[in-house]
Please model this.
Amino acid sequence: MNMKTAKLFLIALVTFIGTQFTNAQSKIAHVDVQDIITNMPAMKDAQKQLEQLSKTYEGEMKVMIEEFQKKLGKYQEEAETVDDKTNEARTKEMEDMDKRIKDYRSTAQKDISDKEEALMKPIYDKVRASIEKVGKAKGFEYVFDKTSALLANGTNITADVKKDLGF
Model:
């Protein structure tokens, strides 16, 4: 290969690679998933439901703890005036109450976690489907979440996804 042919080949190769790189860049987009999810009406409704459930459990826990503290105070005041058998029975009763409170707290946490998962999964699925739909419609091969992408370039399709989701 002579020098002139080599130069032409090199120019053609650089042009081809540049075109391919430009095409690859134009097929990349990013989206701010957190912004979308935070502002979705369905997410706001889910948060209200979770807050209400938490308040219900907190109210019930408060009643249980107040009852525990009231009995504990009474039993401590009367401890020296009652026999050992009564004190043992009261100690056992307090231990049982303490266990019920801890079990209730654990059950409440699990219920809240399960409810959160049940409410969030459809939201995440809907956002994912919308991102895929918008990305495909706009001809993007890759759509990255803004928070995890190392790319500073690419088209931001957050507004398009929000529009697709109806807000």
